[in-house]
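Researcher: Quick test of sequence recovery. C-alpha cells follow.
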C-alpha cells in the first residue's frame, strides 16, 4: 500500500536527491516558507510526496527566472485558486441538489 501523499516519509537527503536539489536548498526553502516538511519527535524533517511535488514546482518556477518571493506569491495564489475551485464545485453540487429537489416537487 502506498503512503498517503501528505505523509512525511523521506529524510532530507533522499528528498533532496528525488527533487534534484541540494539539502541546503531544502533548508532555505523551508526558512522562506515555501515548503513545510513534517518533523519527527526528534526534530528531523520528513518530506512527503506532496512536499516533493511542491519542490519540483519551485524548481520549475526558479528555473524560469522567478525569484524566491515571486515563487512564494505564485504558490500562495495557486493554493487559493485550488481552494476556490473546490468551493465552487461544492456550490455547484449544492445548487444541482436544490434544483433537483425543486423539480421533483413540481
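Model:
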Amino acid at each position: 500500500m502506498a503512503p498517503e501523499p501528505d505523509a512525511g516519509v523521506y529524510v532530507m537527503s533522499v528528498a533532496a536527491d528525488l527533487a534534484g536539489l541540494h539539502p541546503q536548498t531544502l533548508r532555505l526553502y523551508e526558512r522562506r516558507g515555501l515548503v513545510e516538511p513534517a518533523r519527527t519527535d526528534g526534530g528531523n524533517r520528513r518530506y512527503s510526496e506532496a512536499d516533493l511535488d511542491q519542490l519540483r514546482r519551485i524548481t520549475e518556477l526558479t528555473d524560469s527566472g522567478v525569484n524566491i518571493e515571486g515563487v512564494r506569491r505564485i504558490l500562495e495564489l495557486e493554493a487559493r485558486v485550488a481552494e476556490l475551485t473546490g468551493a465552487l464545485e461544492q456550490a455547484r453540487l449544492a445548487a444541482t441538489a436544490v434544483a433537483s429537489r425543486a423539480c421533483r416537487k413540481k
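The mean pLDDT is 93.
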